[in-house]
Automatic annotation (TrEMBL):
It comes from Clostridium saudiense. Transmembrane segments: none annotated. Residues 36-397 form the Nitrogenase/oxidoreductase component domain. Signal peptide: none annotated. Keywords: Nitrogen fixation. PROSITE patterns: NITROGENASE_1_2 (PS00090). This is Nitrogenase component 1. Pfam families: Oxidored_nitro. InterPro entries: Nase/OxRdtase_comp1, Nase_comp1_CS, NifE-like.
Length: 436
């Protein structure tokens, strides 16, 4: 039987956290369990529409990847763009070069792909075969871009590194280009929704800025021509390694425009973007900024003192928690999937007001007893809403923000926080108005 108080007492506080190694799981067994980098890579390659990806590894890795992809027509179904090279004991002992070469010949004859992603799994990384060099040689031989993505799970916590490495591998497809005549941008890391329909997309369109590349969500030819853009807009930290490589190789600057929730960071991103493009900041951005600040001021009135547990959302973990503490909310426990190089300033902001417990994410089973100890009003992330309601906790549904970019994120998020907080008070037999 899980002793929830014992679990809580073993957890670290935020002020003692320097990196992911300092963050402990609630229990050794995770529910739901984490996905491996192979899963992240397969998810992203769904959106590179005319590339074939080859899973190299055990039959288990190949089976589960194929099972996932064959259910979707985006991958092309059972005969689609996901193929595999299954290694046996002989390959593991003596190397898999010959098997890859033979399979690649069949692949080129049958699929005639515009690019090939070789996905190496744990067993390949353990035996040390140099698939990257082999891929380069095969690319030269067949006249097609061949890039390698390393997805070993024993060096990573989750699937995020698979997303990151797959994006980074795309630089092997890119070729030097003359800059486009009209000002254009690449958007890197936007995985949900139609970017053109986001606030940021509409602002760029209204300023006559073209979208040169959407990655993911493109063709191999789009990737090849990526260097003709004037700037990279990185909408998720998974795109940062690629943006840095492109800056080094092609001299393309980048702007980090994550799914920020604090209007100040969003305005700063807008200013940096338009300064780099040497364009005047549209007046509409200031109007949107003022509207977002109105939402923040309303949120401060209603949400002050609201206690919460943070799980998994579309937002950057520590940035959004910093924002919520500015609203006067109290983080009891923050679940963390990964940390970025920009987190220090957000952590400092949180610690100036609160010092919550911190644990690794993907462990909702042992949280059931933790709720009874911490007694939060809100849960941010994926959980069973009816189960939470019985404990007086309302769930904050933030997934819709995945398809947003800009000040629209603030307005949506504050409105959802207020809605959920009112709901929690109804569960608890009171109202928000009694607290104002």
């Amino acid at each position: 039987m899980i002793n929830s108080l014992e679990i809580i007492n073993k957890l670290s506080k935020l002020d003692s956290i320097n990196n992911m190694k300092d963050i402990k799981p609630l229990t050794y067994a995770s529910f739901p369990g984490s996905h491996c980098p192979l899963f992240g890579s397969a998810l992203l390659l769904k959106e590179v529409k005319d590339a074939v990806f080859v899973v190299i590894g055990t039959d288990e890795c190949s089976y589960y990847t194929k099972q996932m992809t064959m259910r979707s027509e985006v991958y092309g179904g059972i005969d689609g763009r996901c193929v595999s090279i299954i290694l046996n004991q002989h390959d593991i002992t003596f190397g898999c070069q010959k098997k890859i070469e033979s399979a690649f010949s069949e692949l080129m004859e049958e699929y005639k792909p515009n690019a090939v992603f070789l996905i190496t799994t744990c067993v390949v990384e353990l035996i040390g075969d140099d698939v990257e060099s082999l891929g380069y040689t095969l690319g030269e031989e067949y006249g097609v871009p061949v890039v390698t993505v390393h997805t070993e799970h024993f060096k990573s916590e989750n699937h995020i590194i698979g997303l990151e490495r797959t994006l980074s591998a795309c630089i092997g497809i890119m070729e030097r280009q003359a800059k486009s005549e009209n000002i254009s941008v690449n958007v890197i890391g936007q995985r949900s929704g139609n970017f053109i329909e986001t606030e940021l997309g509409k602002i760029l369109n209204g300023s006559n800025v073209d979208i040169n590349l959407m990655l993911p969500g493109c063709t191999v030819e789009d990737i090849r021509k990526a260097p003709q853009a004037h700037i990279n807009i990185v909408t998720s930290s998974i795109g940062l390694p690629l943006a840095k490589k492109m800056r080094s190789k092609f001299k393309i600057p980048y702007i980090l425009f994550e799914k920020f929730t604090d209007p100040e960071y969003i305005l700063e991103a807008y200013n940096n973007l338009f300064d780099t493009l040497q364009l005047e900041l549209p007046k509409e951005v200031i109007q949107l900024y003022n509207k977002a600040n109105d939402a923040v001021n309303f949120g401060k009135e209603v949400l002050k003192g609201a206690k919460y547990i943070y799980g998994n959302t579309p937002f950057q973990c520590f940035e959004v928690n910093s924002f919520m503490t500015k609203l006067g909310m109290i983080p009891e426990l923050i679940q963390v999937s990964y940390m970025t190089e920009n987190d220090d300033k957000y952590i400092e902001d949180i610690l100036s007001k609160e010092n919550p417990y911190v644990c690794k994410s993907a462990n909702i089973a042992p949280l059931q007893g933790v709720y009874d100890i911490l007694k939060p009003d809100l849960y941010l992330g994926h959980e069973y809403a009816t189960r939470l309601a019985k404990k007086g906790i309302a769930i904050v549904r933030s997934d819709m923000a995945s398809a947003m970019a800009g000040m629209e994120v603030v307005n949506f998020f504050v409105e959802e926080l207020v809605r959920a907080y009112k709901e929690s008070k109804e569960y608890q037999g009171g109202t928000v108005n009694e607290l104002m």
